[in-house]
Write a structure and sequence with these properties.
mainly alpha; rod-shaped; 4 helices
């Protein structure tokens, strides 16, 4: 009874730790979200449409537009 409980406890501890986002399968590149947010600022369709990506892109476009760096191409140049 002790050995299975110990194995269960160790398994729960090891599966709980996944490490930082930049390691292995946890890595997600944020550049597509930025680029697609900039496309939305320029009133163009985003290149990557997937859930929850579109929500992130619309939120990013809204933040970029309200940031005060300009509109359209000037904002894209300021972000690039």
């Amino acid at each position: 009874m002790i050995v299975p409980m110990a194995l269960f406890f160790v398994t729960m501890l090891l599966t709980k730790v996944s490490g930082p986002q930049c390691l292995g399968p946890n890595y997600e590149n944020s550049y597509p979200y930025l680029f697609n947010s900039l496309l939305l600022v320029k009133n163009q369709a985003p290149a990557m449409i997937e859930h929850p990506g579109i929500v992130t892109q619309v939120f990013g476009g809204t933040i970029l537009t309200t940031s005060g760096k300009g509109l359209g191409h000037r904002l894209v140049e300021a972000a690039a």
